[in-house]
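Late entry, written up from scratch paper. The run itself happened at the end of the previous shift, but nothing got recorded in the book at the time, so transcribing now.
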Amino acid sequence: MKVKRNFFCQPTLRVARGLLGKFILRKVGRRTIVGMIVETEAYVGFKDKASHASKGKTPRTAIMFGPPGFAYVYMIYGMYYCFNIVTQRGGYPAAVLIRAVEPVGQNRVRPSGPGKVCQYFRIDKHLNGADVCGRELWVEDRRVQICKKDIIRAKRVGVDYAGPYRHKLWRFSIRPNIFVVKK
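Output as recorded:
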C-alpha cells in the first residue's frame, strides 16, 4: 500500500525510523525498480549544522522548506546524487536521507550508500521536487515488521564540521543487513 503524505508530516526522527522496512519504488519506462529501505539519516531544522538548510533558504535548499513528502535531490563531490524525503511541515527545513536499500528482484547491485541508492533507482536532479506519493517515485508499506531491538541508532556519516550536531544519533539502520553502510 502506498504511504500517504501524512506519514511524512510527522517529526523527522520518527519518519527516519519509520521508513526502515518500507519500500521505494521508481517507475522507469515499463520497468519498476524496488528496494527496501534499510538505512536512513535525519536532518532537522535551522540549528542542525549538518543540514544544508542551516544557512537558510537558497535555490538549492528551497525544496526542504516546502511541504513534506517531496524529494530533495542534490549532487555531492560533483558526481553522486543523494535522495532525501522532506518531512514535518512546510516552512521548517527537515528531511530524511535514504542511505541504503536492499534490492528486490533479480538485480545484483549493492545499493549501499546514498550515491549508490540514486544509481540503483536512476535518481538524478530531474527528480528534485518530485512527489514521493506520486506515480514515478513512491514509498510503499508492505507490512514488514522491524523489531525495536533490530534498529541501530548511530552518528551521522561525514558531518564532523557540524559542531554539537555531529554527535546526534540521527542515523538509523536495520541489523543484521549486508546493505547497511559499515561506518
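The chain has a mean pLDDT of 92.
(Scratch paper discarded after transcription.)
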